Amino acid sequence: MGEGPAVRPSAAITPMQQMLASGTGAVLTSLFVTPLDVVKIRLQAQQTPLYQGTDIKLLRKCFLYCNGLMDHVYVCQNMSSCSSWYKTPTHFSGTVDAFVKITRNEGLRSLWSGLPPTLVMAVPATVIYFTCYDQLRDFLSYGMGYQGDHIPLIAGGLARLGAVSVISPLELVRTMMQSRKLQYSELMVCIRSAVAQDGWLSLWRGWGPTVLRDVPFSALYWFNYELVKAQLCERYRAPPTSFTISFTAGAVSGAIAAILTLPFDVVKTRRQIQLGEMQALGVSVKKPSSTWNMMRNIWIDMGYRGLFAGFLPRVIKVAPACAVMISTYEFGKTFFQERNLNQARCGL
Q1: Single GO cellular component annotation (predicted)?
Q2: How far apart are CA 194 and CA 196, in angstroms?
Q3: Under CATH, which architecture does the 116-347 domain have?
């Protein structure tokens, strides 16, 4: 009772510095993961080519792109508008073969095709998400006085909910611009038309499936991250600021969260592609299939294997992405903390 109030872990840095640290982590994570997903899309493209039928009719096609931080629907209309992503496909026998042939035939830069437009979405979403998590965790622990392992779980879930809610309309707008080749001057007219036809909630179409996958993932991720990090620090007598500890804890917690939320990821992927194709075709669906109905249909058609499809690729991509992101973020926070401390000492 006689002790003074606890000091917040992130009190030594400003929210702006937290945002800079998380933004840097987002860029580095995107640089690391983008080649993996460009290869995945090219492999997917050769399995489902754009040209179908005897009349060689060019169809619009949607691909799901993930840069390790968030997912995007990419609408490919024709060979010219998506040339950087979807050139005339060379036949690839597998992932390694695709890496080698793309690098040799198209140059190393092709592995980062489509990176700039996705960074425009990924960096703000990640900045909101990580900054909100730290602020919420500290507020619950030190502002409200709550203690326990459930604090990271609650803060992680709420932070992701906020980030998804803010970014969701922007993602729909981006998909709309891609699918219809809109100029910025035409964008507001298109948005007003969509709102007049389907209401303001239409801007958050696809929000539900995203929340069902991302919020549980984030809650589980932060819960396990803080737990694993504390155990590793205790076992190896390492400081909480250790880069190796943060990297390992991020990879482990990311893998666990990815496995436990995989059924929601499968449904979310199908739903995003479905919504992207509807948007590309200009089709307005008042009552699209619900998440639970899609999950039930997958279970009926393919059993539990269908709900856990893509288990290995998801874990392989998510675990290192989480490790790179969180370790970079923690390193950035430590850098700013030491910088601020040194400036405070010099000012004395």
Answers
A1: mitochondrial inner membrane
A2: 6
A3: Alpha/alpha barrel (1.50)
**How crowded is the C-beta side of 36, counted as CA atoms within 13 Å?**
16
- The Cα-based distances of 36 to 42, 68, 111, 151 in angstroms read 10, 10, 8, 34
φ and ψ of 108, to 5 deg: -65, -30
pLDDT for 1? 40
Query: Is the pLDDT assigned to residue 244 strictly greater than 80?
Result: yes
Q: Distance between CA 14 and CA 73 in Å, rounded?
A: 34
Token code pair at residue 157: 């879930």
d(CA 152, CA 163): 16
Output the six-digit token pair for 344: 């405070």
Tell me the pLDDT band of 59, cut-offs 50, 70 and 90: very low
Token reading at 198: 């389907």
CA–CA distance, 337 with 7 (Å, rounded to integer): 14
User: Can you tell me which residue has the tokens 């998510």?
Assistant: 318
Q: Taking the CB of residue 146, how many other CB atoms lie within 10 A of it?
A: 12
Minimum mean pLDDT range among 3-12, 121-130, 235-244, 251-260: 3-12
Sign for the CA dihedral angle at 22, 24, 27, 31 comes to negative
**Alpha carbon distance 340, 325 (integer Å):** 23
- What is the reported pTM? 0.76
Using CA atoms, how far residue 100 sits from 89, 90, 95, 111, 227, in Å, is 14, 11, 9, 10, 40
Note the helical H segments in 107-242: 115-138, 150-180, 184-198, 207-236
Domain range summary for the chain, segments of one domain joined by +? 116-347
Q: Do residues 20 and 332 make contact, with C-beta atoms less than 8 angstroms apart?
A: yes
**E strands in 45-109:** 51-52, 57-58, 61-66, 71-76
State how far the Cα of 108 lies from the Cα of 316, in Å rounded to an integer. 22
Is residue 102 a contact partner of residue 317, using CB atoms and an 8 Å limit?
Answer: no
Structure tokens at 78: 């024709």
Rg, the chain, Cα only? 22
> What's the residue count for the chain?
348
The answer to whether the beta carbons of residues 308 and 263 sit under 8 Å apart is yes
